[in-house]
Amino acid sequence: MDISKYMNRAELDTLDKQPLYLQIALLIADKIQKQILPSGTKLPPERELANLFAVSRTTAINAYRKLEQQGLVWTKVGSGTYVAQAHDVESLSEVPWPQLFTAYPQNPLASILRDIVSTPARGTISLAAGMPDPALYPLETFTELFNHNIGRVAPADFGHIPVEGYNPLRRAIATMLSEKGIPALTENILTLSGSQQGLYLLSKVLLEPGDYVVMEAPTFIGAIQVFQAAGARVLSLPCSEKLSLELLEDFLIRYRPKLLYIIPTYQNPTGRVMSAQERQDLIKLAKRHRLVIVEDDPYSDLCYGEQPPQALKALDSYGGVVYLGTFSKILFPGLRTGYLAGPPILINRLALEKQFIDLHTNNIAQWLVTMFLNEGKLAEHLTAVRREYKKRRDTMAKALQRSCANDLEFTVPEGGFYFWCKLKHAGTSQRVLQEAAKNRISFVPGAAFHTAPTLDKEFRLCFTTHNEAVLLESVQRLAKTLTQITKKNKDNEAMPCSVWPII
Amino acid sequence: MDISKYMNRAELDTLDKQPLYLQIALLIADKIQKQILPSGTKLPPERELANLFAVSRTTAINAYRKLEQQGLVWTKVGSGTYVAQAHDVESLSEVPWPQLFTAYPQNPLASILRDIVSTPARGTISLAAGMPDPALYPLETFTELFNHNIGRVAPADFGHIPVEGYNPLRRAIATMLSEKGIPALTENILTLSGSQQGLYLLSKVLLEPGDYVVMEAPTFIGAIQVFQAAGARVLSLPCSEKLSLELLEDFLIRYRPKLLYIIPTYQNPTGRVMSAQERQDLIKLAKRHRLVIVEDDPYSDLCYGEQPPQALKALDSYGGVVYLGTFSKILFPGLRTGYLAGPPILINRLALEKQFIDLHTNNIAQWLVTMFLNEGKLAEHLTAVRREYKKRRDTMAKALQRSCANDLEFTVPEGGFYFWCKLKHAGTSQRVLQEAAKNRISFVPGAAFHTAPTLDKEFRLCFTTHNEAVLLESVQRLAKTLTQITKKNKDNEAMPCSVWPII
């Protein structure tokens, strides 16, 4: 429609403070409201509108955009701009959230960790989450410590504190590490809201999209997720047997990875322990390549036989090992208190990042853990939980041997939380998990611990969360599941696993 | 040097599992160690090496890189590869951390928040940090609640809980908000490790580098930092007077910003309160443009006169207002417990992000806050702190009026934590801060609350952290500082502020 008879450039005031596009929009809006331009009217193309008012095309576009956002006109792509029906107004009023979200950096596996942490269905025994037994949480000790000390603490200790952490806790952790052969001063310690946060901060500070990281395969799901979310490409180092330093060196030369993430003691999920010799060889190689090693060590205090070898960090002669510890596995997860040990320059850079995330870790938890360490409560607690978890491990091992040995291989872990099992016969661990759900038992299938597709013959059972009676029941349910699957396999003569195209 | 007499392609084993570059490197290393190739020998260029062994150039490069990492050769750029001196080995053994770090996303202002939170020099009165008075922390109530309830709580409540938060706390917060006219169910609430974390999560979920956000100017430093770290470009909406909705609409049309960040009640730092009419008009405009509003509301419970108007979230008719609350300002910062209210689809997406950062917020703090809310302790605590902070505000206002009125303009805030002051005469607030340090008093200069350079005439004083005696002393020190500066200005006949090139 030719609108030049209703309005023209003379009506614009170039001296007015109001932008020209707004003035044009107002002129048109006025004609629409007066129904001089009735609904359905096709308005001139943007170029014509620009000519009519002697303005730039951008100004014309902005005028239409403004009218569109007011619901007065609508644009049909490829056709033109039309005066809207009265009821078109308001129809688009809800915020379209999903369109606003940034791309989610993860594949659907991302929710595995969440699902594991979430509560399983009623009546199901979950051996999935890697959690200590709530019945063993030292809540009484914490209550005593709270009451003994709340009167003496400076209230300012519950105000803002440095990002790096509550200093008495940093000191206590440094002392604890030094006693384990890891030389550390207060300045080497960053307290974390759980060691997961350490992985997150390291990914922010060290990784750009496209960078390589080396990880054991299988390994901790949370670490895989954080590194992948940072856009890193994962190089997998098989770790069921001895680590291949040759393969690692090959990675170092070909890809120059930013870091190696490793759990040397009671590995999650395999339970494996690196020997002292392996550790020395790894450090020698890492030193030569100045490779950053992120050593995650949540389990080494939970040994049920002989003491494991010293941490990699204790052997660190080149300043390249970053050590992550946590109180979640030995005390309780709700403390959300972990720590990182490294050179001060790294601690400082990580703290700059952490301030954006939570300013600093929770003071109450940090204060409680400080007293727990300083009043020597950790040693006696560890003695108690080690004794109990060792009994559970032995009970579970015997039961698995008795009821599942035909279908499963497993090694008895020397410490930590997990049995790592391998199916001997046909079927995948995901299939077993589906059947197991019907028998009200759950665990984590092996594929979750890998970044690449696997044969999926393996799965992880956590033996620390439940008492012996429940563990025995869980093994019975697992055995029943495995028997059912073996029977079905015989009946169906299942095809060997194939890759089917997704169409 | 021609090395073909010492080695040749016949020595490679293409059937060997060892990569060819490694085999080549080993051959050369052998000749170096036997000093057949003495130190200082120039090795053939990579192309020649590749021809010699009939391998690709990449293989040749990798062979040299491997030798270099072993310290056996070194490369002089533009010249060639040479056999190293024995002492060259090991010289590069320390990890070069700063070279490994990702680019820090912030300008040096980034550390302002940190510095404010950190402890000031001995004997200095700091009115910088926005903190409640530690003497008013309800630690006794918390101790009672702890002891009353620790025997009844299920230990599993101290294990892992959903990322979204401790459900009883989410429910209690939803109830609290509903009583304030903000309709909310449990599913609308995400508990946070401080409301700072809400800003961080929103930036991760909504902002890509280059996106626009609209912020008041001046505004909360922590929000500026988080949005800038996400790569967002900030559009500033002056807020000393009434907000200009015309300017905001202009921004919306020109730049299509991802969100508006706003503190409608007792704004930080200006203390300003948006009127009920302004709020309605803003919501009307936001609805038309389907603009996401992030409403930060840490202070509205701290009113010292009449009740402020209802939150923007209470007026939200289009599902676009995200509400942030915290217990840091009304209880104590060390709780590190805040919350976000929004549509479930947003809560879910934020929780997916939060799991990487800390799995979930601290259980002990969440459990304590739940009891505090459910046992009705908040109302009585708020009555007590409001009474005390009102007295402090009045004392401070009178003292400022009495001692600083010649040099300063300020408005008496109706709530919150801050006096926002403006210098009447020559000098900048940063200059005043420098002089003030000598008189052992500190505060935050106005420039810190802006994203663009300002005239820097303003600064913020927090009146809640210290008792009335200390506040009076602080005003005396400030008055002394201002007098000294006025005198110096007269002596020096200071030039008006100019922009000097940095050379």
In brief:
2 copies of one chain form a homodimer. Chain A is α/β, with parallel strands linked by helices.
Describe this structure in words.
The structure is a homodimer of 503-residue chains. By secondary structure, chain A is of the alpha/beta class. Chain A folds into three domains: 9-88, Arc Repressor Mutant, subunit A, CATH 1.10.10; 108-133 and 380-487, Aspartate Aminotransferase, domain 1 (Alpha-Beta Complex), CATH 3.90.1150; 143-377, Type I PLP-dependent aspartate aminotransferase-like (Major domain) (Aspartate Aminotransferase, domain 2, 3-Layer(aba) Sandwich), CATH 3.40.640. In chain A, 42% of the residues lie in helices and 12% in strands. Chain A contains 17 helices and 15 strands. The first copy, chain A, has helices at residues 20-33, 46-53, 57-69, 97-100, 112-117, 139-149, 167-179, 195-206, 221-229, 245-255, 276-289, 312-315, 344-358, 363-374, 377-404, 429-438, 468-492; strands at residues 73-76, 80-83, 125-126, 189-192, 212-217, 233-238, 259-262, 293-296, 321-326, 338-341, 408-410, 418-423, 441-442, 444-445, 458-462. In chain A, the strands form four sheets. Chain A has a seven-stranded mixed β-sheet with strand order 4-10-9-8-7-5-6, sandwiched between helices. In chain A, strand 5, helix 9 and strand 6 form a beta-alpha-beta unit. In chain A, helix 7 packs across helix 14. The first copy, chain A, is elongated and about 95 Å long. The model of chain A has no long low-confidence stretch (mean pLDDT 89). At the A-B interface, helix 3, helix 4, helix 5, helix 6 and helix 8 of A face helix 3, helix 4, helix 5, helix 6 and helix 8 of B.
